[in-house]
Write a structure and sequence with these properties.
The structure holds 2 protein chains of 2 kinds. By secondary structure, chain A is an alpha/beta fold. Chain A contains 22 helices and 23 strands. Chain B is mainly α. Classes of the chains: A alpha/beta, B mainly alpha. Chains A and B meet through strand 1, strand 4, strand 19 and helix 18 of A and strand 1, helix 7 and helix 8 of B.
Chain lengths: ~625, ~300
């Protein structure tokens, strides 16, 4: 594959940070090569070291980091042996960088045009000619670049400020700024994570076009589906190492390393509806004992894994994995059969909404209608999902259902009793039947509280007395959501994202609710953790029969958990029905565009030599 | 192949750590709390001031009210460190004994303002829109007056005296606290954990008590430390005008007023109480700033 000299040639890259308990090896011996027109994707969960890898290549690992490498060549320049590298000349000219959050990465006080022009000016200043570019030449180059990243009306956009642009346009502007001085290598760190699916699809197309034009792309993402549509090769990173690396198509259809395999199994759109996504593996805290780092989570672990480091094995040519148990079949989650969608119930709905309309004050004296004439019924024990892009009114609908907002028009009824339009005093008695799981669990906990106090609030004043009286119940609840009851004295800030969401679910379940309103409960989580939380919802629902109103922008997740689905767009309900019908034969063009924009992974190989029991029905 | 370090010339301001959310840990606290010499002096002076306020007898050299006309208007020397006043009283001892009244006026009036401000803003938040408008408009009107003018007005109504001066300064400081507490509480009210408490069916008053107030207090306490210095000056100003503590009591502002008549013959009468006042206010400001640096930016742990 390496025809010419690779643009990026790294061997033995190590990044070490000083930590409280000794040095932290954030990147631990990474080798990568990237040639023109190629795309290498680095995937992994948060904390795996993927972003640090990219930062180290730019010399931005931070003042406390110690960066070492056997070989580090960027665009033909040797950064290890060539003395102090001129990072500033390197950034922008040889390496362009696109970051995840376009809003915070763009200066709010500068126009987009000025932002894009900056690398140009820097380059001219430090370049060999040291000539100040003519204003017009810069302007034209900026406009040309904006056109190249398909920004409509570049002349107007260049004069606007970041807050005047949509998320997609901001991300394009950021890409334009990264590309404007023509770097041969582009580092993209989660470039589409904050974007809606349809916008994400367009940004991915744009990156694909750049790759076709000869730019080498190092793509960093936690989303395997995004990566699969763009990358030539994929490296799976775990605890600072590439545990598996290979051609994209092969790695996704026939993964070798158990970590990659559990990751892929946790992608909801690849698994049968309602099937388990995670394996019940005891999550003990790992110790660096010289064995395999993945041993404590590995379903295939054997004694040898804990004592000796795994060697790199070639699976096929160009596809290697860091594991001594290659070829051993992976146990599958117990039930892989697709759960049938529950039949639509009749009788009195648990929650019924009719003609809900809500508007908020907009600029000046205008009013912005966020939800317009939305009606739905939710029956006991079922899962009703609301999907839509950001700004579609999903969250407002959830707040109306919870009685946290009063509708301008329309009504909500709970078991036939009026739920909207009544004073809070009346509602309070019934509030416990309806609970809420928020997107960001941490902000849903009082920052001063420990886990036990957070949960104790469901039983009254969250003071020491309540905690003491309800201690057995609190322990039970924590256990029921898969948390060690010993965690009760911790503060939520010390817990992982998945653990925090479990605490939030435990608190919501403490009142024995009939309905859980879940507002994007898994969208801030890694794929593997997302799988565990979705499994938890499934178990809870089977055990308690609680109904779910599940708000999500992720159609893969919705297709996995929901019985029925509502599709929202700009505050209006455009389609609703059983999830199989809506996803199988979408009637509304908007639903079709959402579904077609969804990046898809290749279907797993049905019954290979290494993939044991049949994988059950296809997702959709 | 040997592993070679990659030379970096990363300027500190490019470090991504700077942009990570602040986290709070005991370790971080001590790292932030390293005492610089100036701070050490300030904390030392504060300790001395507190000692003087609590147990002035430990520091005095003779009773502060001991009249000794023979030794009136002495300049500072080995016996009378700060000299003596027109009645021969030891200025040093009077300054030491004045600390209690001065600090009492400052701390007491701020505490009063804090309690009053919190109460009034709670009323505004819990009382619905009409009460809120009424309370906050009254606050606006009070804020429109200069604090000293307001304090004078209150003393004019209540009459002079230590307690009344304290009340006057407290009342004139309270509107600022009311405004701050209300603003903070309104911001906290939008947070996820208040929403969670409402969904759990907790009564409004309980949510206010358990979540809104405790989470609004840290910035208010910071304002309080800043205000103590101002309140001390206001208290001394009132005593200077003869509206504070009654005559023989040693109070720095009152001592300044008495010494004013002897400015050309005995400088010590005004210089030492004035210095004490200045040192006290500077110390409280430095200590307040240090506290603010340590406790502001509440711990909203958020690593993702």
């Amino acid at each position: 594959m390496e025809t010419a000299e690779p643009l990026l040639d790294v061997a033995g890259l190590r990044v070490v940070f000083p930590g409280a308990d000794g040095p932290v090896h954030a990147v631990d011996g990474v080798d990568l090569r990237l040639a023109a027109g190629q795309c290498l994707a680095v995937v992994g969960e948060s904390g795996s070291g993927k972003s640090v890898t990219a930062r180290a290549l730019l010399g931005l690992a931070g003042p406390t980091a110690t960066v070492t490498a056997d070989r580090l060549r960027v665009a033909g320049q040797d950064l290890v042996n060539g003395g102090r590298p001129d990072w500033r000349a390197l950034r922008g000219r040889s390496l362009g960088m696109v970051l995840q959050d376009a809003m915070t990465s763009l200066d709010p006080l500068r126009t987009v045009g000025a932002e894009i022009a900056e690398p140009l000016r820097n380059q001219w200043h430090s370049g060999p000619r040291r000539l100040l570019p003519a204003g017009r030449a810069v302007r034209e180059r900026v406009l040309e670049q904006l056109r190249a990243v398909q920004v409509p009306e570049p002349g107007i956009r260049a004069r606007q400020y970041p807050h005047q642009l949509s998320g997609g346009l901001r991300q394009r502007a950021l890409i334009a700024a990264a590309l404007v001085s023509g770097p041969p290598v582009l580092l993209a760190d989660e470039p589409t994570t904050a974007l809606d699916v349809t916008v994400q699809a367009r940004i991915l197309d744009l990156l694909a076009a750049q790759r076709a034009a000869g730019t080498a792309i190092l793509l960093i993402s936690h989303d395997l589906a995004v990566v699969g549509s763009l990358a030539d090769r994929i490296a799976v990173m775990y605890r600072g190492r590439f545990v598996e690396e290979g051609p994209a198509a092969q790695l996704l259809t026939d993964p070798a390393h158990p970590y990659t395999r559990t990751l892929l199994d946790a992608v909801p759109s690849r698994r049968p509806r309602g099937a388990r996504l995670s394996l019940p593996v005891a999550r003990t805290e790992p110790e660096r004992s010289g064995g395999c780092d993945f041993a404590h989570r590995c379903p295939l672990v054997e004694d040898g894994c804990r004592t000796s480091e795994p060697a790199r094995h070639e699976v096929t040519d160009g596809h290697s994995a860091l594991c001594r148990r290659l070829g051993v079949p992976l146990p599958r989650p117990a039930d892989t059969a697709a759960a049938p969608t529950r039949p639509v119930s009749s009788g009195t709905p648990l929650l019924e909404a009719k003609g809900l309309t809500k508007s908020f004050p907009g600029p000046g004296h205008s009013r912005r209608t966020v939800v317009r004439d939305v009606s739905f019924s939710l029956y006991a024990r079922e899962t009703l999902a609301v999907v839509g892009e950001s700004g579609s009114g999903k969250t407002t609908t959830a707040q109306l259902a919870l009685g946290l907002l009063e509708p301008d028009a329309g009504w909500v009824r709970l078991r036939g009793e009026p739920w909207s339009g009544v004073p809070e005093r009346t509602r309070r008695a019934a509030r416990r039947r309806l609970q809420h799981v928020q997107q960001d669990p941490l902000s849903s906990f009082d920052p001063r509280y420990t886990v036990e106090r957070v949960v104790a609030e469901a039983f009254g004043t969250p003071d020491r007395g309540t905690v003491r009286r309800q201690l057995p119940r609190i322990g039970e609840l924590l256990e029921s959501v898969g948390l060690d009851p010993a965690l009760r004295t911790r503060r939520p800030g010390e817990l992982s994202g998945g653990q925090r969401q479990r605490v939030a679910i435990a608190r919501a379940l403490a009142t024995d609710p009939e309905l859980l309103v879940c507002d994007e409960p898994v969208s801030a989580l890694d794929v593997s953790v997302q799988g565990q939380i979705l499994d938890l919802f499934r178990d809870v629902q089977q055990r308690t029969g609680v109904a779910l109103l599940f708000i999500s922008h992720d159609l893969g997740v919705v297709g996995h958990v929901a019985d029925r689905v509502l599709v929202m767009r700009e505050g209006e309900l455009v389609e609703s029905g059983r999830v199989d019908d809506v996803f199988g034969s979408p009637a509304h063009p908007y639903t079709r565009s959402l579904l077609s924009a969804l990046p898809r992974l290749p279907e797993p190989e049905p019954e290979g030599p290494r993939t044991a029991p049949p994988r059950g029905a296809h997702a959709r | 192949m040997t592993t070679a370090p990659v030379p970096t010339t990363v300027a500190r301001r490019f470090s991504p750590r700077r942009f990570s959310p602040r986290r709070f840990s005991p370790r971080r606290f001590s790292a932030r709390g390293r005492l610089r010499p100036g701070l050490a002096i300030a904390w030392g002076v504060l300790a001395l001031l507190v000692l003087a306020a609590v147990w002035p007898e430990a520091l005095e050299r003779r009773p502060p009210d001991h009249v000794d006309v023979v030794h009136a208007l002495r300049s500072p020397d080995a016996t009378y460190w700060f000299g003596t006043d027109q009645l021969g009283r030891d200025i040093y001892s009077r300054v030491v004994h004045g600390t209690r009244l001065t600090l009492l006026l400052g701390v007491g009036s701020v505490a009063l303002a804090l309690v009053l401000g919190t109460f009034v803003s709670s009323l505004a938040i819990l009382g619905g829109r009409a009460v809120d408008s009424l309370v906050m408009r009254v606050t606006d009107v009070l804020l429109a007056f200069p604090g000293m003018l307001l304090a004078l007005l209150v003393v004019a109504i209540l009459g002079p005296g230590t307690g009344n001066a304290l009340i006057a300064i407290g009342l004139s400081t309270a509107p600022g606290f009311a405004r701050l507490v209300r603003g903070e509480a309104l911001a906290v009210r939008e947070s996820g954990f208040v929403q969670a408490a409402v969904v759990l069916g907790r009564p409004t008053g309980a949510v206010h008590r358990d979540h809104l107030l405790p989470n609004s207090l840290p910035p208010v306490l910071v304002l309080a430390t800043v205000n103590i210095g101002t309140a001390i000056i206001a208290g001394s100003s009132l005593s200077f005008l003869g509206l504070g503590p009654e005559a023989p009591a040693a109070e720095w502002g009152a001592m300044l007023a008495e010494g004013r008549d002897f400015l050309d013959s005995a400088w010590a009468l005004t210089v030492f109480p004035g210095l004490a006042l200045t040192c006290c206010v500077i110390t409280l400001n430095v200590v307040g700033a240090d506290l603010r640096r340590r406790f502001d930016g509440r711990s909203r742990d958020g690593d993702r």
